[in-house]
Specification:
single chain, 384 residues, alpha/beta, seven-stranded mixed β-sheet, four-stranded antiparallel β-sheet, globular
């Protein structure tokens, strides 16, 4: 089946955060991580059928929900999960916040690896914990983990957690098994619990393989994994996700946080969409990934031709491209402000992902090619 990812669909006046929260009209948003494509046909059909039923009362989570997740992880990543290890949640960020609060105490320390998804730091600070930055090492477009620093940081008795972005947002790295094992070894040695955010796992491109942190033998017992189909199938507005851990103590501690807040039930449309995505939409996902990677190649060619002073970080996963603009010697916030105000192009400042992101920009390429080209033209004009 062919899918028309080139179709330009207006999202204005649809209560879209991406498109309708702009400070003025005619802004082209390429910032927040959702896509401008319709969700898979199987998902749309399943949701339509559910709407036609016409009754939207309290909804139990069916066995098919759990089976869809178990089968997906077994088929895609070769990892065998058990139903009792799974906990449905309304999203990865609520689960992250619940995990921080359940598995550490106020004043404890949590390691993150900047430049990294800004909500990691926000969740830590909002929970009254302290951020420890294990900054990634950057060398000629390649990011690596500073393991020497990590081993010292993990040895601090106040450090209780490490939040791992796997694959990494925003630098687009797919961590190898060896890299993940070294993280796990440092954390096990120092009794540091790993919270692995794997929401971008399905968006790993050819020549790379996603390695679930939970596949690392005994390391698995010292971790919980957060995930969702929302990034892969463009379902963020349906508020559905899950976490899993074989460690009963960790899992039940985090689950208790949701019980205390009274938010154990899921949106019935989220349940429906997850099942249809995982059970019937794998072909769509593979077609999407091909289109996204072609968008990435288009961006690389455009920047090489028109903006040679910018370096594109190699994209191994996600649809979020990390641009090295340090040669311009302009602060990231100033760059994004000027692009928004003068070119009406809305992209992310690298500094929002940590001080080490200064001089970088993040741009979302999950949009029809014509829209991407329009955005790149605005970028070119803004940086001319």
């Amino acid at each position: 089946m062919d899918y028309n990812f080139d179709e330009v669909i207006s999202r204005r006046n649809s209560s879209s955060i991406k498109w309708d929260d702009a400070p003025f009209e005619d802004v082209l948003p390429m910032w927040i991580a959702d896509m401008d494509f319709k969700s898979p046909p199987a998902v749309l059909n399943a949701l339509q059928k559910r709407v036609e039923h016409g009754i939207f009362g309290y909804t139990a989570i069916p066995e098919t929900f759990y089976n869809a997740i178990l089968n997906w992880w077994k088929k895609r990543y070769g990892i065998t999960l058990e139903k009792e290890w799974l906990v449905p949640v309304s999203g990865v960020i609520p689960a992250l916040s619940a995990a921080i609060q359940a598995l550490s105490n106020k004043g404890d320390k949590v390691i993150i690896q900047p430049p990294v998804y800004n909500h990691f730091q926000t969740s830590i600070i909002n929970s009254e914990r302290n951020v420890v930055e294990n900054n990634l090492l950057y060398d000629n477009g390649h990011y690596a983990i500073d393991f020497d620093l990590l081993s010292k940081q993990a040895a601090d008795p106040k450090v209780k957690l490490l939040i791992l972005s796997n694959p990494h947002n925003p630098v687009g790295r797919v961590w190898t098994k060896e890299e993940l094992q070294r993280i796990g070894d440092s954390c096990i040695k120092n009794n540091v619990i790993v919270i692995s955010d794997e929401i971008h796992a399905d968006l790993v491109f050819k020549d790379y393989n996603h390695i679930p942190f939970a596949s690392l033998g005994e390391t698995y017992m010292n971790s919980i994994t957060l995930s969702s189909p929302t990034k892969s199938f463009n379902l963020a507005g349906l508020q559905v996700g899950y976490f899993f851990s074989q460690n009963d103590e960790l899992r039940k501690a985090v689950q208790s946080s949701f019980k205390v807040m009274g938010i154990e039930l899921l949106n019935l449309f989220g349940i429906t969409a997850l099942i249809a995505a995982y059970e019937e939409s794998e072909h769509w996902l593979e077609a999407l990934k091909e289109y996204l990677y072609d968008n990435y190649l288009f961006l690389v060619s455009f920047i090489e031709l028109n903006l040679p002073q910018i370096k594109v970080t190699p994209l191994q996963a996600t649809y979020l491209v990390w641009l090295d603009c340090t040669a311009l010697k302009i602060a990231s916030d100033n760059l994004t402000h000027n692009l928004l105000e003068k070119q009406k192009l809305w992209i992310n400042s690298g500094s929002m992902y940590g001080e080490i992101g200064e001089g970088f920009l993040r741009i979302n390429i999950a949009t029809p090619r014509a829209v991407l080209e329009m955005g790149l033209e605005r970028l070119k004009e803004g940086l001319a």
